[in-house]
Amino acid sequence: MNLTLKIWRQKDSNDTGKMVSYNVTDISDHMSFLEMLDVLNEQLVNSGDAPVAFDHDCREGICGMCSLQINGEAHGPDRGVTTCQLHMRMFKDGDTITIEPFRAKAFPVIKDLVVDRSAFDRIQQAGGYISVNTSGNTQDANSIPIPKADADEAMDAATCIGCGACVATCKNASAMLFVGAKVSQYALLPQGRVEAKERVMNMVNQMDKEGFGNCTNTGACEVECPKGISLTTIARMNREYLSASVTKD
């Protein structure tokens, strides 16, 4: 395939940035989207130009690093996949593909297609964990009976990889699907109930502090989420937050 790529180029966080067009040729439809960008970058380096900066790591749909807005869609036109799992067979010969970084106030651009998603890290640090007694008196988790339905639902929430597609696709740049998933994976398990009130209060407050928008139940986040995180996690987070607000000391 021969393609025209319109890519956002921005030298640093202080640069205004602009769209730049590139042509790539002989792209195999078996390539992943990131492999196609590798071909472009090799072409740019060989011609003495600066390569396009973009996030990537595992390239297996696990780490959540490869976050690109492709033709206006987070992770591109396919569903249930990250950018690294998106294959070029989703496009046609002669297509023009627009590639941008995730757009959100809480995700400032660092360079080109790379954004700072450390806001997610700070939300996690605010409460996305459980405190465990490691003094030798720990209780074996397998000895705590948990209904399979609850365990399965907690695992579904825990599949969130924190890529930020939910934020990028939301018209309000809301992080509530991400936070809802992190709250839900603990709220459904007995190990997470001990600190449930502090967790949801701290994580929601940190989310607001980071500048994410509010949820208006559009549902775009669930559609674009590569792991299919359900909107029910947001409903659970809201219930947990209301309960914690009413019963807090």
Fold and architecture overview:
By secondary structure, the chain is an alpha+beta fold. It has two domains: 3-111, Roll (Ubiquitin-like (UB roll)); 118-247, Alpha-helical ferredoxin (Fumarate Reductase Iron-sulfur Protein, Chain B, domain 2). It is 37% helix and 11% strand. It has nine helices and seven strands. It has helices spanning 33-46, 118-127, 148-158, 165-169, 176-187, 190-193, 196-210, 220-224, 232-247, and strands at 3-9, 18-24, 69-70, 73-74, 96-100, 109-111, 114-115. Strands 2-1-5-3-4 form a five-stranded mixed β-sheet. A two-stranded antiparallel ribbon has the order 6-7. Helix 5 runs antiparallel to helix 7 (196-210). The longest helix is centred in the C-terminal third of the chain and has 16 residues, at 232-247. The protein is elongated and about 60 Å long. The protein starts with a strand and ends with a helix.
Helix content: 25-40%
Class by alpha and beta content: alpha+beta
Q: Compute the average pLDDT.
A: 95
The CATH class of the largest domain is Mainly Alpha
Give the helix/strand layout.
Elements: E1 3-9, E2 18-24, H1 33-46, E3 69-70, E4 73-74, E5 96-100, E6 109-111, E7 114-115, H2 118-127, H3 148-158, H4 165-169, H5 176-187, H6 190-193, H7 196-210, H8 220-224, H9 232-247
Parallel strand pairs: 1-5
Antiparallel strand pairs: 1-2, 3-4, 3-5, 6-7
